[in-house]
Write a sequence for this structure.
């Protein structure tokens, strides 16, 4: 009896092996530093709010740890700047003429603008100055500029003790308008944080911007009415120039703080558009800066 041998069934033709990317997508893997959606990114940032606060506080404590006077420099630095400006602009250039309560007027301007100035400069170093942290840990990079701005806010609040002492020392009364300090600082903080986020992204790609910013900020200070009243200086200029200077965000936030603390400023009346401008600048810089920074999230720490 003969045995019939049957051929084994044919194997299916082998196709090309799947690529690593296809395998990763098939099994739900993703790039470690891929940019999350804007909503997810915002949630991640909120979950790290305790780290942001602790990091800001630690930096503030360490900032003057090597100085003999320690944290007193938080107050002395803006006061010394105000003293120099008073000598040059108030006395030598006569900027105090026609401005009642010039010393509180000047010190308030210096303190408020220093808050914005320091936040912008801190933003230029937020990513580039913490590359080790950025490359070693996975977290929303926006936490760094936000914490730097929170550090500057904490420093300003500490310095406000000196500002209040000066205001009271010059006989200005405590009024209900002092309550406006909180919303004014909140809006300015949002504005400063947006600027810091913008500068952090720019500086991450172009570190030399940090060398240019002191000159830009100094020019901005002179255009913001820190040492003089803008409406009394910019008179013989085109209307659009005057409007641009009065809508300058730094000047807006300075005006809000002066109105809150100095009873003689604007004779107790502030144009209603100032609050609208303050809110508009805060939303424009805060939201726009956050989105602008988020769009480059996956690039930080490369190179």
């Amino acid at each position: 009896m003969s045995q019939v041998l049957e051929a084994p069934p044919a194997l299916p033709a082998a196709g090309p092996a799947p690529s690593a990317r296809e395998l990763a997508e098939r099994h739900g893997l993703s790039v470690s530093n891929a940019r999350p959606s804007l909503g997810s990114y915002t949630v991640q940032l909120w979950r790290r709010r305790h780290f942001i606060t602790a990091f800001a506080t630690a930096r503030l404590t360490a900032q003057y740890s090597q100085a003999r006077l320690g944290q007193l420099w938080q107050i002395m630095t803006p006061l010394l700047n105000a003293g120099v400006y008073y000598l040059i602009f108030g006395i030598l250039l006569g900027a105090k003429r026609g401005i009642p309560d010039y010393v509180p007027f000047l010190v308030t301007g210096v303190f408020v603008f220093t808050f914005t100035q320091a936040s912008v400069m801190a933003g230029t170093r937020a990513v580039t100055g913490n590359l080790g942290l950025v490359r070693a840990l996975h977290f929303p990079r926006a936490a760094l500029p936000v914490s730097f701005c929170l550090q500057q806010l904490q420093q300003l609040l500490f310095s406000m003790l000196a500002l209040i002492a000066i205001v009271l020392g010059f006989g200005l009364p405590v009024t209900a308008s002092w309550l406006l300090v909180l919303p004014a600082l909140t809006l300015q903080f949002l504005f400063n944080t947006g600027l810091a986020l913008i500068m952090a992204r720019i500086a991450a790609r172009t570190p030399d911007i940090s060398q240019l910013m002191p000159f830009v900020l100094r020019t901005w200070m002179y255009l913001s009415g820190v040492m003089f009243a803008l409406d009394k200086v910019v008179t013989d200029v085109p209307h659009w120039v005057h409007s641009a200077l009065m809508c300058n965000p730094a000047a807006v936030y300075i005006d809000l703080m002066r109105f809150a603390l100095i009873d003689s400023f604007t004779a107790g009346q502030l144009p209603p558009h100032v609050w609208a401008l303050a809110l508009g600048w805060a939303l424009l810089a805060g939201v726009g800066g956050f989105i602008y920074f988020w769009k480059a999230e996956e690039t930080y720490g490369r190179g």
